[in-house]
Structures
1.
Amino acid sequence: MKDTAEYKASIENIRAQFPILSQKVNGRDLVYFDNAATSQKPYTVIERIDNYYKNENANIHRGVHYLSQKATEDYESARNIIGTYLNAADASEIIFTKGTTDGINLIASSYGSMLNEGDEILISAMEHHSNIVPWQLLESQRGIKLRIIPIHENGEIDMDAYNEMLNSKTKLVSVTHISNTLGSINPIGEIIDKAHAVGAKVLIDGAQSIQHDQIDLKALNCDFFVFSGHKVFGPTGIGVLYGKSEILNLMPPYQGGGDMIEKVSFEKTTFNVLPFKFEAGTPNIVGGIALGEAFNFLKSLNFNELHEHEMNLLKYAEEELNKIDNIRIIGTAKNKTSVISFNVGELHPFDIGTLLDKQGFAVRTGHHCTQPLMDFYKIPGTIRVSFSVYNTKQEIDLFLIALKKAIDILS
Amino acid sequence: MNYSEKQNSIIEDFSMFEDWMEKYEFIIELGKEVNLIPEQDKSDDLLIEGCQSRVWLKSEVNNGQMYYFADSDAIITKGIISLLIKVMNGETPSTIAKENLFFIEKIGLQEHLSPTRANGLLEMVKRMKMDAIKNI
């Protein structure tokens, strides 16, 4: 893989912006390979949160005073930064939520209330629980039919099956852009076009892709796109639901309360315009502002170079892992992001994860909130490593040594 | 040895280890000695679902003393179970229910008792105590 001094310096420069990466865990240098669960935060985001509470804190959208107006401007400016970055038609299509799960629940509750018995929703077999359970709840509440698009053994969606399942009753297709467990990048362009051809709307779960891909909502033409701030260098508790304004305008409000109303009376209450119609109550102001800062950080990166870096890490790690006896990589799609799930013979992922932790490595073990996918592969769980822009080849080399040590102890 | 003495003896065993890996190698060895439950007896009512590793637990009272049998699909979990069994087996229900269980924290394994249910151990300790309480 690319290993020039200039290249290394550019990655070191990015690493230096993440204070958490320089700490020790269990007496060893921390190696953070759990980026699919959450990304670390750069100084700019941390300092933005600090500065907000020190100098700017006020409630927004209502006050006439200086601080309130400043906080309102900053919050709305963050919405603009995010909308522009994602190429949304208008910033009012960017709804702030608590995260991906909240966004999907909003759609299931609001858009779902417009569906009727017999209508069909399609999800794939590789979805995270947060893109399964809200639809199961809707199924029991409204009698819609939830159908599962099968996947191939290598972790790719079975597109032939998908094409056959689409029909005039299909009202929504809700699929993940990138599988959090397998790393598969799904052909969402084709999925979206085919769904639109039968008049269905499409929700893309972008929780994993937002950090790795430059998303262009206009080009994608999806109807909804959801993601979490904490997976894209921002804080927890904030996320985004993008929706096309013509659909969001037709949908009923999700939660009632302050900010989402135009006028309230006991006879008749009218609702605010987008995006406020879907943002009841005092929002996560600092979260929104800090997420805007995270997108400023994203803008500062050279995406092509970083994409190449992550692909190099993925390829190198997979090649080296495959040299270890009894390794089985789960998810071998042709188009993958820098996520690797694997098992070692019959060893339990929890045992390996524990011994890696004791050597300073943060990896994820378990079912990754995709139990149906574990059932598909007939395994209790996997060990998952997931890389981000700040990870290095040297970290992978250290990881391989630690993994071999863990395997030796357990065998 | 009484309940506290058994726990202190485990703490002393663990004090010899210089690093985490040695400690875990010892736990893994202990995992091989646990009083297993035969495969055919592993019914769902003995199962304690952890988020990652699964634990089966069975208890018996013999001459007023508690005896536990357990198994897990993860060897480290099994090792920690074997420590719990060493301490609790042969004790009266009242001792197990009332006396302090302090060795896990003292040997630095309290993370395994966190409520994130990483390995079902917190539930297992609760169930071991509940089984004792039922027999007081």
2.
Amino acid sequence: MPPAERLREVMPTGMILTSPAQLASYESDALGFKRFRPDAVVIPGCAAELIGVVRLLKDQAVPFTLRGAGTSLSGGPVAAQGGVVVHTSRLRRIEKISPTEMYALVECGVVLQQLDQALQPHGLYYPPDPSSAPSATLGGNVATNAGGAHCLRYGVTSNYVLGVEAVLLDGSVVTFGGPAGGRGPYRDDWKRLMVGSEGTLAAFTRLWLRLIPQPAKVWTFRATFLGIEAVSAAITHLATHVSCPAAIELMDPRSVAMVENSPMAVGLPAERFMLLAEIDGPAPLVDHRVDAVAAILRECGSDDVAFSDEPDIRAALWKARKAQGGLLGQISPDFLVQDAVIPKSQLAEILQFIYDEADRSGIPVATVIHAGDGNLHPNFLFDSRRPADVAAVEGLSKRLMRRVMEVGGTLSGEHGIGNDKAMYMEEFVGPAGVAMQMAIPRAFNPRHQLNPEKIFPERHFASP
Amino acid sequence: MEPSVTPPHSSAPPHAADPLRACVHCGLCLEECPTYKLTGDENNSPRGRLLLWRAESEGRLPPDSWTDFYTDECVGCLACASSCPANVPYEAILKQARSTRVAAGRTRVRWPVALAARAVRIPRLFNAALLPLRLLRRLDLRPHPLIFPGKPAVAQSTADYARIMMARHRPTGPMVAFLTGCLMEALFREINFATVRVLIENNVRVLVPAGQGCCGALHEHTGLPGHKELAAQNHAAFAGIQVDRVVSNSAGCGLALSQSLTGTPVQDVLGFLSEIGVKPRTRQPTNHRIFVDLPCHLVHGQRASISESILDACGVPWEYAPNAHDCCGSGGVYNLNKPANARAILAGKAAFLDQLPETVSPILATSNHVCMMQWQTARSFIRHPFEVRHVIQLLDPEAAW
Amino acid sequence: MVMCCPAGTRLAEVNALAGEQQLRFPLVVDPAATLAEHLAAVEYASASARFGPFVDNVLGMNWRVPCGRLVRIGERVIKSATGYDLNKFLLHSDGRYGNAVDLVLRLRRRGGEAVRCILRGAHPAIERARISLLRSPWIHWIDVVDLVVTAGEPAFLYLAADCGRGDVAAFDDYFRQLSAASGTQLEATEALDYSLPKLSLKTVITAAPPLAGELVREHGGQARVLCASGVVHYLPPRNLPLLPEPTLRRLELQCLEQGGHSYGPWSPRRDAVAQESAWATTLESAWNHL
């Protein structure tokens, strides 16, 4: 640990937390039951202080981890090996919004919703929309390549990162890319490796993000379906429909039942899948497609199709989907959400697999799905105080991951690997894949001092 | 293939036994929290505080003065409760955490606050003690930056005034029971009088039940004892009488009273007036402009707002103040206990006043006297002159401005 | 909506196959050129206006590292946050770390109808049209927003979209409105023939049109600005074997200052700076001994 005086020297306006009760809040991200208490937390007051802290810490025999808002679900920004957590919560300056060049320059701790609000008067749009948008930082979004419901049409975070300014472990501050979104003075496109690197390569200080015009008009559709066949057909039809839906979201009957058995009930029929879809665009293009989309939903077997372009009604249509995550806390002491992506054609089979395996393990499961891109979020409900529950959930996750690999899917669509899914990586990428992947931290963070034990469990920090 | 849709395990029962475990640690509260935004310290956020309390209750964290510190740091604005997808009962948990800390001597409440909390339990005494301050206000002298201008009656009580006004105007409409409040009655009585006038002008029969006491919000905010007794006292004063509504002109008092009077409908007076319709004021064009700030305990506590029809009726151009849904930093007595935080929170909200054109005379209007006191303090660092008013004063037929 | 095919597949073949499923791979510069030829010459195509660069549309690869070993990179699904993004890093790495053998392409629906037009007019009118379109929600539905600058001819804006039959009238209306509002003349057109450029410049969207103008004014030939991407594709006149090295360096420097770069056959060879050289060497040595 660096002496407190040294830390104070490099961050005169920052905060240093060391008491057990000050460290407790930093034990976990939104995967609350996996706790790793850091030895210290530092909160730099500005970008210069962040750079100073990284330069100081790199010379100490201590691992350290960058953390945005800590809303991630895979145990990424936690001190898995102890050491220091560097919290970027005070680096929240939007430095520039350029309506002519269509980009924003932000500090890493700017909150996604803060950017959205700042873009509103310019008629500009930054599409990635993870559910944590009200709190999540853009630095964290870039580190995990965050997605969200609307990335089906508009793409994920990596499609919007033009440049990354970062402090490296040699102490240098580098800019990969910039407003133009290219390579800048470098021969290779290093920013591609920075995006989605989960804080294991560098500490981001500032980000250049691409902006697009806001879609003019939005229609939201909600339909319920009795069977998986019917809803799968609807998803396939919608995904290839001329309206190019911006989002296609699915809640399974168990999730619907969960909402309907709660005070958040919205009156959905029980034991049904609920599908939400959104189409958007200029009014002359989008308005005349509304009937066609509703017709697809009905033809595929829904007798319960609601749709609207009114903001209030649209919010009501989304209500059950939005309520689902929070309800987990009201019915279960802990939950773990998986994030696999599968080919859409495998949806019915994988869902059945999840049900069978969960039922056999005695673990309740409620699944929500970014159906347009095959991104599954099964939520396993359990009590982390019961070791048998924890073992059951781990076994269940492992079997699901195997099955996902067999059908050509991937481990994580938008949450990242963190330390929660690191144990599946070797099986997923194979030995050659591990060697390919591990070369990257070797180039930037060879001792794994930055965020150890994430992405690959063998990324263990050994002090020299 | 048809997946079996019904789970063999019906959803596990809600674990209401331990509300602390309802928090899923999602973090959606972070950006709602004024102290998190101010400090960037996650311990100083709703999620952080809940985690500290839970870790302590589960024995994973020994009692720690830092936990007490972060418990005290909370403004109690309840914005987190509005944003919580898991409906964590934050207000109840916070009250519990504070009262157990005060009872165990882990947190010390500053003596003037503790003294006030005792004094308000005997309204007659409290009113008498504050008579000199009422007098000073009457003479347009303000001994403390928290005290906003106004000319309260020095001797006449709101109850007496209401009786006289009722006799004079004989309204015939719905009947309300009016909570006059402790500090409102003892110091800011002119707002109570204005409330009586506006209600009666709109044909409402106003009853000021005898025997009513302080709502107990002060005790709940600070964790001091006394709330239970006050709740019982108010229950006795209000619950038995037949009225259409119990009304309060202070968002925080209204919230606390509504929790004491189960079954009796308590409503903010402005909400009630907007339901029955209010006589609009017509005024000569001035360069006044109203900026409306919404009290947290109205928005997040009572889940209500100040309706546009009410604000339109004030007869002066109005708009919501920027970030009107965010806390001003008042938090009951938070601005006494944590003056630096309170000022920093207010500074962010009040900055817009200095951006206004010089020709504009802004009126900062809200509906909670503690918020008014807090806004009054902004006059020490905001250059642009502005006035602080209760919205009911803007509807007052006798308003002097 | 994915397709796996060898890197040597011509884009015309890719789209013939995809077309059987009413799908398409929209990033085509020259249908007769292969995927590998595209990836070596350009990072963006005209349809990047709507669908983004190649890196966003190539989901995965079988990659041959220099030691000869074949490694699976990336995904077969359209969304991933699994591990380091080698796929995007390697796709245009110019043979330094190996070569793509097979590619997994993200396909898009084929609307079946094509709407195309050309807007002509004085420079300010063209600029008005370009800027208005880039700020309009229509941009999300238009495949091509290219400013075509040819030596000795007035520059024009070329717009094209793939859409459904029911949408044609709406597009026509929009193009008419855009033309009227900007003071440009609207012309119907067939698809323009494109070939792979010799030089591709990536910069900010406002800097690309002047860069294209300068190139063509001084050296002739044709430059196409992919307006939404801030990219200039330069096709030199037949008699120009290569731009002078100082010119290439100067052009590249202009892009570099904005965090952009130059790419393609004529792009000047760039040596890694010391810091980068260390990273690259680490990767090369690891990947050569898999």
3.
Amino acid sequence: MPLPDRMQFNCPVKLICGRRALEHIPYELATRNACRPLLLSDENAHRENRSRAFVDALRETDHTLGLVEALPAKASREIVSELAAIYRDRDHDALVVMGAGPLMDMAKILNLVVSTGQDDPGAVTSDMAGMASRLKPMVLIAPAAASAYEASGRASIHGADLRAVGLMPDLVCIDERTLGAPGQEALMATGITALALGAETVMARPKNPLGDIYGVNAVQMAVAALHAVERLPDAVTPRMHLAGAAVMAGCALADRAPGRMERIARRLAATGRTSYSEALGILLPAAADFGERHWDWSPADLLRALVGLDRAASTPPAQQAMSTASALKTLVNDLFCHTAGRIPRVLDDAGFTREELDSVAASVETEDRAIAPGAIARLFQAAWGVVPDPARQ
Amino acid sequence: MSMPVYFEYGCSVEIVAGHDVLESIPDILDRLGAKRPLIVTDKGVSGAGLVDVLTAAIGARIAIGSIEDSVPVDSSIETVTDLAGAYRQQACDALIAVGGGSVLDTAKGINILVSEESDDLKAFCGSGTLNRPLRPLLAVPTTSGTGSETTLAAVIKDQARHRKLTFGSPFLIPNAAVLDSRMTLTLPPAITAATAMDAMTHAVEAYTCLAKNPLSDVAALTAIKLISGHLPRVMDTPEDPEGRLALALAATIAGMAFGNSLVGMVHCIGHALGAVCGVPHGNCMAMLLPYGLEYNFHRNGRLTADILAALADDDTYARTPREDRADAVIRRIRELNAMLHEACEGRHPRFLNEVRNARGEALVPKEVLPQIARAALDDGMVLFNPEDLDYDDFLMILEHAWDGRPLDRSLVRRGV
């Protein structure tokens, strides 16, 4: 295993996962000197009455819980300010977040506001350097359907993209009682996103064995869940795996800058022709192949997480990268089949024309000067469904 | 993939690893709001010139409050109290622990006293006694084995009462571990071998014992691969910085693995052997690891077999018949010990009857094996071993390990 000359990794998240995990939260809060948590939940969690399980978990303790439920997906600055006022006025000392994506983004900003004593969320987001290195305790109760960024050190709110280890939750709890009951599409989007983010962590250089611990787990858990796609909405185990995969992917990202595939997928999603998770799913197999040739990626490092030890070990080293790309293609093709075509395999399935992809490719190359001119167009051709022309590789 | 019914995993230490990362310490301290660190170390480390390497790397960019190298082999309350006084006298605001487990435990103890503004360390003994962040603490390991830079515990001796006090809190975890290849380049071969096998045992027991979880599994296999891939090279070329960095990283990753999934009977016997006979911990681990795998074979042979790919390579794993893989792992660990024995000119013992002190006297006379077996029974890690053990089982294993005979697996009694 070649190591880079320098590595850095920081993941302050403690994961508690499994049966009656919720009941461990009061102890974990107490060890962080907190006993007055404020619970924030989004509309999905509120509709499914998920907070009930957490309230029950606190019943036999001396913790005092505040609840603000059914928060809207997009939080305004006013809502952040109102929540900060509640946090301070009621003397809360920790945040517990029950929800996904935008709610967690908002909670990260709220934690900055209440921890730094800054009243204006805008001022906090523009002055990350002034952020306290130790924020107030924050707990994420992870749902099965998530953006996969919840546990990361990233937050997007009010047009600002923030990155800092301090934004990561102190504790993540995965408990089957609070996974929620989302539909199959939301669950598959979670699995594909976690798979892609974890896979990029493992394949991309420079190598970081510390981040790979989380990246490999994100891939293993996502693959296990996606193979159970028929049972996704109903069975507990695949939903536990999805919640775990999303958390692992977030931990693997930590406060790292977005990866190349992530950025390209964002550009594709910005066209409005496909969702972010679909874009990642389409790009991943092509990027594994393309990345090995052009970006010094190591797809072979991913094979074991995808197909298991026995199959990976029995694959000759020279074939491992190709087998990785092949396994990813098979997985995405299977998802296409299982969903009767709702999950696209290639850009063609998502309705892109080859011509419009050229402008997206150009915008990506403008953003990332390290990419050779024309490279993204070639990646898109492979992801569009064209068999690559070896002469052009 | 299967998930345990319940598990926990976390390692909040920021890890910075590389060939010239000591230079990043001022930036890390700055981020933590500290400007004047106390450097805590021992005479062995300072005598080897490692503190000079550190001060040359950071001295121009930060005001070092004081350098204290009086940490003994076993940290004590008196040492901690004295050094806390030095911290206060020099108006320090952070700690840098440069050394092995005892130095880091001492620094953790000092951190308790200076952060809690107390002189009574015993008042913070046990767990749950700390409830707020302490002063910034950075760990700079100078051996590649214990993994203590990732743990939340400290063991400090109360010499007046002849007992060891244990402190446990998430707030004791260092803020950062700085793994620089320059700090282990001069580690002598026998210590390199023993500490690497200590880390190897952490990883193998983390993967094969009862409290394993998906994250500790990946960490454990990563550590095993790094050690098996680099240890022979480092024994051959001790000044190889790539290999030294890999071993340092492996020890930290193995620490993350066993810190979250605990260990088993190899550590039970190893702790007892260390307490009764004073055998260095790494040597205990190296000698006993094959016996732990043999004893638990009927319970976790499938997991032991998995290790073969990390210990050797994928091709060896694939070419070895499924039913032979676990045996191949045990055989390879014995071969690794034999190679280390030869590379260290006999100073890496393979069996208990080979353990000698500096004067060449036997450290483990056969008569003390019952005493070791009794002490092993009291070790809490026995709860996480796949197969049950009682006094007779421990003694039977010790007798095999003393002679250097592979374990007669027909003697292993199978619990329910």
4.
Amino acid sequence: MTRTMTIKQALNEALKEEFRRDETVIIMGCDVGVRGNPFGITLGLYDEFGPERVRDTPISEAAIVGACLGAAATGSRPIGEILFSDWITIGMDQLVNQIAKIRYMFGGKINVPLVIRAPVGAGGGQAAQHSQSFEAWFSHVPGLQVVMPITPYDVKGLLKTAIRSNDPVLFFEHKRGYEIRGEVPEEDYTIPFGEAVVRREGADVTIVAISIMVHKALAAAESLNQMGIKCEVIDPRTIYPFDYDTVLQSLDKTHRLIVTHESNRRSGIGAEIVSQVVERGFDLLDDHPVIVAGLDVPMPYNRQLEAMVIPSEEKIKNAVLKLMD
Amino acid sequence: MTKQADPKLLVDRYRLMWVIRLHEEALKVLFTQGKIGGTTHLYIGQEAIAAGVIAQLREDDYIVSTHRGHGHMLAKGGELRPMLAEILGKFTGYCKGKGGSMHIASLEVGNLGANGIVSGGLPISVGSGLSAKMRGTDQVTVVSFSDGATNEGNTHEAMNLAALWKLPVIFLFENNHYAVSTEVSRSMAGGMKNRAAAYHIPIQQVDGNDFEAVHFAAEEAIDYVRSGSGPYLLECETYRIEGHYYGDPMVYRSKEEVDAWRKKGPICRLEQALVERGILREAECREIEAEVRKEVEDAVAYAENSPEPPIESIFEDVFTEEGA
């Protein structure tokens, strides 16, 4: 049996089911308890599981992230929540110098099964410090897994995998994606990391789209279809590990690659994806790969300027047309 | 008469302090011989703190250590052989040669890790304190830090949360007077007493070179924390006899200053008390020293003869499942 629900509801359901399944799972963060998170992601958890396991914290990112680490190393399965992913910077030492490296530095002696959840993304007029997506930063750090799903089915299955994983996971939720609806089965399921999904099949151009860009790429593909151009849209779902096989298989058919992400272009994840594809499958390409990404400026507040910085359906479409020209 | 510790305990800890001291002395030789890579931070002069606080923890208690952490590990039950093997980067070391001097850890002895970031351990101690509390155990966590860490945000966030949640954490402030080259009076506003008061954390300040003073203060701190009353701050005033790292030219302080502290060193002070009280004769002290020296030499030989890590291990241990 499947039901239709929003990403927000799917996340909430995944949390509740994992809390019921494993009593070592705890969550901490600013607003996760009584308020149930500003987006409603943790609604009902506090009432069902109590203040010990659902812990409201001060605004204290280093302490939240570090406390997750210490608890994970000593038998808990913590989920830390950062209200906006931009503020992970305040807990950066704990994440990058501690969590990511501890298992390796200590010769595999200490495991850190933890998840840090944080909303990413722009488009709400929230300006430069509430709109960023740091997937490229964190996938650069060995020792972290980076997950960025954008359908209700995927967020639920991948959040469960993240909670059950014995290694640290950064779980990025797009703020503009919380109301996206989709089908979710009633029974328990998980989705393995490192498995991309082909969202739409096509033989002309491969579009690898990250997070919210999946939906923009699908819209662009639909409109291009009416012009006779067939786009294949791939949603990698996890940034690290990354499923290059699915991308290369697609290129074997299309021979043209576009990568699109919302975060700004310079040193973004698109650069890494393109470079990997070029090294692994140069001969598959008939043309140079193209990256459609955010502009290299801090996010402006003004709506009109913001809309220019964020890559649009239109920009993807134009990139495809140029490539097919 | 001031309170005196049990003679047997004193001899045991006196010996432990020699283990720490001679371990560090051996590192100086190995470093000079070019056998230790990178850098190494010596615990010389601070032995009474590890021996006074950490050595009286239970096996299932936790410590979160620092870059100057060899003494902590040895006091928590760490063994000389895998310690020295790790510092020489060998596969038989505590971390298979991947951590080195600054990153020694072992869950078996309850060491959640030394740390190359001076305040990096404090938030971690909040987590181990939280998990102990949630599991309903009475385990305590001792997190060590020095004056260099007191002015980083990690420290304040951790103290606030530990106090707010009444966690079983002892903040062990080993004030050794120097953050790299900067003397504490030039780095720290307010002092730890005021900071502890701000977070409503009880504090005791003791002479960190006086073993018995540290021991009894730690006993109180451990009892307080174990009973579930919340965190405790123990400030031990001591002195970093060596440079920040071994080989530091130390242009920032005078020889006279260092010599004055050397005379107040924790080992000679405890030795004096042991002899005065008739617990050990001077010759017995030298015997203990010689015995420990042998143990350290044995461990150095073990470490030197240990294998290098296999090349294949380079990709191991990043994740629990490779390719995850």
